[in-house]
Structure formats: C-alpha cells, structure tokens
Write a structure and sequence with these properties.
Elements (H helix, E strand, L loop, with lengths): L1 E7 L4 H12 L4 E6 L6 E5 L4 H10 L7 E8 L15
Antiparallel strand pairs: 1-3, 1-4, 2-3
Length: 89
C-alpha cells in the first residue's frame, strides 16, 4: 500500500468539492483525510503493484484539477495495524 500526500493550489469550497468528487471516483483510494500542516490531504492508495500505481498516478490522480504537489510513500512493512479504539467507558 502507498500513502500519498497532496497539496492543492486553492482552498475554496468549489475547488475542494471538485477534488473530493474525483477522489471518490477512484477505487484505488481506500482512505482520504483532510490534514492540517505541510500538506492538505493524506490518501491511502492500494494497487496491484508499482506499475498499476504509476498508471493510477498518471492517468487519474495527476489529472485532478487544483493539485499543486503529490508525494508518494511506499509502505515497506507494517509494524502495527488495529481497528480497536483506545476509549475507556
């Protein structure tokens, strides 16, 4: 799986709605989070292999309007993954 940081050029509601609609149409994007800080969105992307990711990037993601920068990170291994919430009652 890959983690993709996305920076956008404009933060107005119309531009963000266009971005959101495009991301919803990509089955490769398993999660998309709005984040605060150096970049605007964090995506978790799953593809069959790096060739499939390259195709996804060039044919889909890079064509979304308003994207200024994309940084991709490949997860080499998983140290911890859980769905349990650390909330006490």
């Amino acid at each position: 799986q890959l983690f993709v940081q996305v920076k956008v050029t404009r933060h107005d509601l119309v531009s963000l709605e266009v971005f959101s609609k495009a991301i919803h149409e990509f089955p490769e994007v398993m999660e998309c989070h709005v984040v605060l800080g150096v970049f605007d969105f964090l995506l978790r992307v799953v593809t069959k292999d790096m060739d499939a990711y390259e195709k996804f990037y060039f044919e889909k993601l890079s064509r979304v309007p308003n994207i200024r920068e994309v940084n991709s990170f490949v997860a080499a291994s998983e140290i911890k993954a859980t769905t349990a919430l650390p909330i006490r009652r």
